[in-house]
Amino acid sequence: MIQAKLELGFKPRAIARGLNRAASTIKRELDRNGWQAPNPRRIGRPPFTGGYRLQNAQARAVALASKPRVARKLVLGSPLWHLVLEGLASGLSPEQVGGTLARMPEPVRISHETIYNAIYAMPRGELRTEVIALLRKSHKTRRPRARGEDRRGLIPNMTSIDERPLEVSDRLVPGHWEGDLIKGTRNNSQVGTLVERTTLFTVLAKLDHATAACAAEGFARVLSRVDSQMLRSLTYDQGKEMSAHELFSKETGMAVYFAHPHSPWERGINENTNGLLRDYLPKGADLSVYSQDDLDTIAWTLNVRPRKSLGWKCPAELFLPEGAFDFQAFWSNPPKPVALGT
């Protein structure tokens, strides 16, 4: 199309508009393939399409696509190749080989992916078979990293969110919760977050570890303070910390439903609340310094905050028994800002 329109006398900017491309894109394509703008002072017939030829442009593009922009670090027969083979022959994995070479007196940084790619790019033959035999699994071909299933394993006996009753989705009856973890610096500390879907009432749980047993025990512990009539179900993502959901259900009597992978909008209330909690539990902070009393104070700060979605009522007055929270009396003497974890 570019060459045809050049032959018809179109200018590059007009060609770009016709092809729905940026003018700079067309200009670069012409510049790298020998095109010259027509010279109005030229005497005689102008050169054919300014020197642009589609066959030459395509051949150049194909050649560049097959040529690496950076020279390969690991080449068969090179000194580095022999070092890698020595490491593999010693029983190391490609990742361990890379880590070992990086710690040598003359460090060499090489990715395990580079090692795998070099091995499986070898031509078929006896040498390739011998090198592949040095790998732990010795697969004849490179297998994809993800093969249609979660590499972390599956949560046993999950009940999908698709099986959740309509009363939960419609938020008609209180007692249905959403849960999650928020992590601290380097994922070394965590706090469990639970939000009731109808009233937005928030409960936080101090968790010493992110293990399934610890999460189930921590969530059950903080929910034991809640009236059992307000404990109907919990919707969670497919994090492995909820693998012990059957133990959690036994302790609380709550059904647990799991959202689809990578679908945070299915637990949108919890995700929104986690964003509000980051004002008090910032990213990059050590969350282990917060005690359960600190977390209760933070949760209470959200629970007494008026919400537009609740008609400017607050979660506490909707969730707690009638008369347990006096909105006007509380906000007649506003509380001081929360400053915890110090």
Entry keywords:
Nucleotidyltransferase, domain 5, extended, single chain, alpha/beta, five-stranded mixed sheet, 342 residues
Rg over alpha carbons = 32 Å
> What amount of the residues lies in strands?
5-15%
Q: Percentage of helical residues?
A: 25-40%
Q: Write down the secondary-structure element order.
A: HHHHHHHHHEEEHEHEHHHH
Number of helices: 15
The coarse silhouette is: extended
Q: How does the major sheet shape up?
A: 5 strands, mixed
The figure for the number of domains is: 3
CATH level-four homologous superfamily name of the largest domain: Ribonuclease H-like superfamily/Ribonuclease H
How many strand elements? 5
The class by helix and strand makeup works out as: alpha/beta
Distance between the termini: 67 Å
What is the top-level CATH class of the largest domain?
A: Alpha Beta
- Mean pLDDT equals 87
Q: What is the CATH fold-level name of the largest domain? A: Nucleotidyltransferase, domain 5
List low-confidence stretches.
none
CATH architecture of the largest domain: 2-Layer Sandwich
Give, in spatial order, the strands making up the sheet with the most strands.
3-2-1-4-5
